[in-house]
Design a protein that fits this description.
With 320 residues, the protein is an alpha/beta fold. 39% of the residues lie in helices and 18% in strands. The chain has 10 helices and 8 strands. The chain has an 8-stranded mixed β-sheet, sandwiched between helices. Helix 2 links the parallel strand 3 and strand 4.
């Protein structure tokens, strides 16, 4: 085990303890049923997903497809369990998935897992009452990056070929990005939106985990951050959730600048330092029960409803 691998292991253990202690003190939302599936038949424990539906709610429901965060190295579908249950309790079908983590796979492997899960969801949609023609694609932190990458790859055949995936028939009505990271080549930014030189070692480790021993030689290296894959993409309406005390604030601001003129409808839900002195990174995901979280998450569902009914915000591939 290398020194960097050791630090990855320590980070996982530390985060796992904190999240376990947090969830033990929380009360799960009521009125939600959960089913678990393997979306791949290889037996890998990370190839599982959960389907959440309101209890005793029949029929086809709009679908929320959630990709969890965790810096690409941590977490699984249970990390966002209560957040997904909350959304489901409001009358939606929700799917969240585990995907293989760095360094056990690379970025291509993570993308392939997401596409495998999405294809599996399409296969069970009729049985589980999941409306793949009304999809809210959402992700937090690293999951926001993966959500954007998934959407762009699904829009462009050349990207799908590059990542070794087949596109899926999701009609994404909107994307909701919570405290997202958009540029994986400059993960740690200064307050002036510049690359932080003190993060060189961490960035180098991430590059090698995502792209191999010689990262810049990988054909994926220059096709992995949002701005690198966005040309020609017909984006859906986008909502960004953020707060001033977020450690990745500069990424949220960059996402705002990127999407406010590229999406047919744009909503920015932001809490400044004075209004939310205790709100931090992905507060609305981890602390779904807080008043501020309820406001943010309810706003995202209202945004989804608007986008489903708004005929002027049509988006997506013509061949879907």
């Amino acid at each position: 085990m290398t020194l960097s691998d050791f630090f990855v292991k320590l980070a996982r253990e530390s985060l796992g303890k904190k999240d376990g202690a947090r969830m033990a003190k929380q009360t799960p939302p009521d009125g939600v049923e959960v089913k678990e599936y393997f979306y791949s038949n290889d037996g890998d424990a990370m190839h599982r997903l959960n389907v959440y539906r309101p209890t005793n709610e029949d029929g086809v429901l709009p679908l929320v497809f959630d990709i969890h965060g965790g810096a690409w190295i941590y977490g699984d579908k249970e990390l966002n369990r209560y957040y997904c249950m909350y959304l489901a309790s409001k009358g939606y079908a929700v799917v969240n998935m585990s995907y293989r983590l760095l360094p056990y796979t690379d970025l291509r492997g993570q993308v392939q897992d997401i596409f495998a899960a999405a294809r599996f969801v399409c296969g069970i949609a009729q049985k589980e009452g999941l409306d793949t023609n009304r999809v809210m694609l959402t992700g937090d932190s690293a999951g926001a990056h993966l959500s954007c990458l998934f959407y762009c790859i699904n829009e462009k055949a050349e990207l799908a070929e590059l990542y070794g995936v087949e596109r899926v028939g999701f009609d994404v009505k909107c994307m909701v990005l919570s405290h997202g990271v958009c540029d994986i080549h400059e993960m740690v930014l200064t307050k002036k939106d510049k690359k932080n030189p003190f993060a060189f070692a961490a960035q180098k480790k991430y590059d090698s985990m995502m792209f191999g021993a010689h990262p810049t030689r990988s054909p994926l290296y220059a096709k992995s951050s949002l701005e690198e894959v966005a040309d020609g993409v017909n984006f859906p309406p986008v909502m960004i959730i953020g707060c001033e005390r977020d450690v990745y604030l500069m990424h949220t601001l960059r996402l705002k600048r990127f999407f406010e003129n590229r999406s047919p409808k744009f909503l920015y839900h932001f809490v400044n330092r004075e209004e939310g002195p205790y709100l931090g990174h992905v507060y609305n995901i981890l602390r779904f029960e807080w008043e501020e979280s309820v406001k943010a998450n309810d706003s995202s569902l209202a945004f989804f409803d608007e986008c489903c009914s708004d005929k002027d915000t049509a988006c997506g591939r013509a061949d879907k």
